[in-house]
Amino acid sequence: MANPEPSDAGAGLSEQVAEALRERIISGSLPAGSKLNERELSAELQVSRIPLREALPLLEAEGFIHSEARRGSVVHTFTLRDAVEVFDLRLRLEPFAARCAALRVAGGASPEDLLASLEYARTGVPGEQASGRNSDLHEEIVLLADHDLLRRLSSLLNGRVRWLFRLTPERDTPGMWEEHAELVHAIAEGRPALAEALAGAHVERGRHASLPHLSERLPSVPVPRRGRKTRSPA
Amino acid sequence: MANPEPSDAGAGLSEQVAEALRERIISGSLPAGSKLNERELSAELQVSRIPLREALPLLEAEGFIHSEARRGSVVHTFTLRDAVEVFDLRLRLEPFAARCAALRVAGGASPEDLLASLEYARTGVPGEQASGRNSDLHEEIVLLADHDLLRRLSSLLNGRVRWLFRLTPERDTPGMWEEHAELVHAIAEGRPALAEALAGAHVERGRHASLPHLSERLPSVPVPRRGRKTRSPA
DNA sequence: CCGGAAACTTTTGAATACCAAATAGCGCAA
DNA sequence: TTGCGCTATTTGGTATTCAAAAGTTTCCGG
Questions:
Q1: Beta strand A35-36 with A72-75: parallel, antiparallel or unpaired?
Q2: Given this model, what pLDDT does residue B233 score?
Q3: Which of B57, B93, B157 sits opposite A58 (nearest CB)?
Q4: Strand partners, A74
Q5: Which nucleotides of C are covered by protein (CB under 7 A)?
Q6: Tens digit of pLDDT for each residue in B146-179?
Q7: Predicted TM-score (pTM) of this structure
Q8: Mutate which of B19, B149, B151 to disrupt the A interface (most A C-beta within 10 Å)?
């Protein structure tokens, strides 16, 4: 339910391309500062330039790449500031999402998908993509909130959240699951005020726990523009 | 300063196309439910299908159109719910933007662009696009906040805000300017808590003042899919 | 030897032409 | 009238081509 298609086969080709690039950027296989050559990439991904050029603006909107007219696109250099900004906005959006979701449940909506997602986050194969299961849970809350604009803004944020979660795998602990469980139950019981407060606390705890790790893992200054191949020094 | 190019001439062709369509949708010249025929539109806008096909995903992300695979795109039917959702998210984002902006000023940033924008909102040509000047002011606050992710989310919201403002021109009163002035001054004086609270109050006052007008101006049920030409009844 | 201008090359932005697949509309028959 | 199948339009995608701008190299002069 939470994951109908393993790789998004149904969507348009441009979105598949976007997702492929997103994945490469998050995983570091496309390093920060890399120049994205359209012809090279379209050859590599086995598509023409059209779907590629439809994908680039999407990635640009999410801030994964920077495009300047007639100069091409470069992979964004994520810094500590980017991480802080993600927490800043999660702090504004997730409590609202939790609140809406709880209100919806109070109004009769079924929280079963959300509960299933929580269970999945707990029982899923341990090593495999725990960070992904966590962001799935957050997305499930947004879905339950049934708020179109919120969903749009959240999906813009989603890629960055995935990036952030994958950068701090040590946060995937039983304690994290407890936090999620508390939040999900507040929603499932239809208690908007509690859900909103818990979501806020959840984000702020995450920020506090992550920042020390992040500040030693992220560059503090943008990587200068460089070519496709990772050129190691000397 | 606030408006370097009257029509966005510098940007890529796709963004010009997107803006043109956005404008037509907001103004009603492309009515809700209209089917967007790629060939027809590209002929009308004097561009090939390429920039058009790059523009459509942007409008889709902003929720101005709905695209289904192999079925084309239809103009979104704005309802009261859409308006409520805009207020919901402005309530979450604008106080944060105001807060950041005030913090930046307290940290030494210059609020002169913002003050200029306020002055422009007051003195600008009366009839001409007052709603546009108002949303410019909000954008200026976001710019001053100097928060990359916030800027991205806000620009996704921006089109809808413009739509909403143009739908309720009666809100463009001296009282509105007073509210803006109070907010801008709190920011310019570097008072984050006050600025945040004022921004929230501003949004909620707007919601309360607008909803009565909106509920009589917006359809409550989506317009069914229909062809390009506006077919008046009988 | 270094600096700057000119020529060359690469790459993007955009247009045109084309094809396959799928939808949708239409007509026809029961 | 209703259901079925055919045609025709339209989208999604590819390949090719062109112009213009950016970047790079070369070459000449100080």
A1: antiparallel
A2: 37
A3: B57
A4: A35, A66
A5: 11-16, 21-24
A6: 999 999 999 999 999 999 999 998 888 888 899 9
A7: 0.92
A8: B149
